[in-house]
Amino acid sequence: MVNVSSDGAPGERVYGERLAEVAEKELLRRVHDERDPAAREELISRYLPLVRSLARRFSSRGQAVEDLIQVGSIGLIKAIDRFDTSRGVELSTYATPTILGEIKRYFRDKGWAVKVPRALQDLNIRLNRVIEQLTVELSRSPTIAEMAKACSATEEQVLEALESGRAYNSLSIYSSGTSDDDDSMELLDFLGAEESEYELVEQRRYLAPAMERLEDRERLILHLRFFEGMTQTQIATRVGISQMHVSRLIRKSIEVLRRHMVEQDQLFGEPRGS
Amino acid sequence: MADTVCLEVPRDAGFLPLLHLVLGGIASRRSFSFDDLDDIQLAVDSVLAEDVPPRGTLSMAVTVSDDAIKVRLEPLRNSDLRVTLAQGQVPAGAEGRCIEICIMLRSLVDEYLLADLGDGTYAVELRKLVG
After folding, report:
1. Which residues of chain A have a CB within 8 Å of the CB of B80?
2. Domains with residue ranges and CATH for chain A
3. Does B97 contact A250 at a Cβ distance shorter than 8 Å?
4. Complex-level ipTM
5. Minimum mean pLDDT among A5-14, A92-101, A166-175, B25-34: which range?
6. Which of B34, B100, B104 sits opposite A147 (nearest CB)?
7. Which of A145, A221, B4, B54 has a 20 to 30 A CA-CA distance from A214?
8. Burial class (CB in 10 A: 0-12, 13-18, 19+), B36
9. pTM, to two decimals
């Protein structure tokens, strides 16, 4: 046992030191060199707020946030255990994608609202890319037969996979439009660019109260589809996401609007369908 | 040459995927684009979502020719939906409380028609040119 100071100097410890005051690098050194469980525990507790923050980003996917925090914590532990102190990067830099990867994997494996066979899930993910590629190659929306050929699947399998994609709860802005790889771009990454159309949408009286419940990008997509008459393919190109994802976002947005209408009816009006 | 496929299902949201698959199978056999298929599926979903509360069974008849697909849904019962579709807009006083289904349908299909079935119910026909 090495005894010395609490200033984080490598290999040094003091009697009665408070781990909360020990530098991160020293804790990492203890985890890796000495397999010190207390240091590991301390790092975990320091980074739990990061896990919570990342888990909350996925709260609209229909899974309990507490479950996601648990899953994210596994990612955090993996990051701590695998972290290479010689790489010269911060633990937070390494931990963030690892935690996100663990949460995404969880959704990939378990996040389907209806149990969908893995083969269909995979085909659905492949279709995302194939539709994009074919749309560019053909300069139009592909047919089911063309999609099937590109995926080496039957047309029925393609239809089933497309349908199974709708069973997935991942309709939030965190959904990946083109790939489920850990390092793939998420819609959130595309947000931020101001679009002049947003203002146009705001000016529309149609659905105005409910539209406020939508994200800017969703409002823009609805505007382009229903007020500008753009096709999904054109919107996909314009917004920079896949056609399949445009389809999902349109459906999700309409569902949000519809839920709002139902709530309004329950609050102020006669039951619908009277 | 037009072919017609008919399907009768319980009015339960759980059967929507079945309707989608039938539409998809037909679209596939006629080489419709994914865009066109998704539009017609969304149009069907939109009409059915507005016909609340869902009761009884639903009949979907899909007639397809080389250049168009026609989907007839019946029987529908929601009187608000009927008025809205007949007027082409949400009735006065209900703005902001109803989905602007007419705007949606005008974007998704080329034509929609109402047909009175005589017993307080009605049918909606959605027609979309394809290709």
Report:
1. 272-274
2. 19-110 (1.10.1740.10), 112-169 (1.10.10.10), 188-274 (1.10.10.10)
3. no
4. 0.78
5. A166-175
6. B34
7. B54
8. buried
9. 0.58
